[in-house]
Amino acid sequence: MKSQLRVLVAVAALAAPAVAGAGTLTVGWSNFSFVNCVGGLSCGASAPSGLNTPTPPGFQAWGFSPFIAWNDTPGNPAESSGFAVSGLPQHTGVSVEFLLAIIDSWDGDNPPGQAGPDLLTIQVDGVPIFAETFTNFGNFGVTQSASTANRLVGETDLGFLSWPDSVYDFSGANGFWLPHTGSTIVVRWFAGGEGWQGPGDESFGLDHIFLTFDGVPVPEPGSLALLGLGLAGLGLAKRRRS
Ligand SMILES: [Ca+2]
Ligand SMILES: [Ca+2]
Ligand SMILES: [Ca+2]
Asked: Which of 81, 114, 194, 224 supports an S-S bond with 47, CB 3.0-4.6 Å?
C-alpha cells in the first residue's frame, strides 16, 4: 500500500508535464475546407454569398483555390464573412493571414456623389484591426487608403463582372499579428462606406485564411516519457496488490 501511494504521488507530480518551450498552432480555411481543425478545436466559417462559390480562372491564376468564400452583400455596413475557432489551448498572440480578392467596381476614396468611399473592415473579437478603402480604378486617378505594396495584380478583369479586379496577399509579413489569449477567436471581414453599392457592382472574396497562435506551451518530451513510466508503475502496483 505504501509503495502504491508513492507511485500515485509520483504520477500526480508528473501529470503536469514540464514545459519545454513555446510552439505555434495554425488553424485555417482553404478551398471550402477547414485546415488543421483538430485536437478539441471547434471551427466555423461563413460567407454570406457562399463559402463554395466557384472561383473564376482569372483569380485561380493568382493563387485562389477552385472555391472562394464570396461576399456580395448590400447594406452599410454589409454582412460579414467570418472565421471562428474555439477550444484554443493557452497562447499569447495570433497572426491573421489570408488572400483577398477585391472584385469589380470598388470606388476607393471617391466622394458619395461618385459611388465612394468603399471601405473594407477587419475585426478580431469585435475590435477593428484594419479599415481601409480600395479601388480598382487607380489607373483613372481614383485613390485608396489601403497600401498596394502587397497587391499581386490590379486594374485587370479576372472574372465575376467585367469590371477590373485586384488580388492582395495578406500572408507572411503582410499579415497581422496581435496579442491574444482567449480560448475563442472570431475574425470578421465586411464592406461598408457611404458609397458601398454591393450586389451587381462590387464584392470581395477570401481564401487561404490562416490563424497562427504563438506561445503555445510544448511539453518536454522527457517528462511525457516519465509520465508513461509512472502510469506503468501504477499498473504494476495494482497488479501486485490483487
Ligand atoms: Ca462601384
Ligand atoms: Ca471583374
Ligand atoms: Ca461603391
From this structure: 81
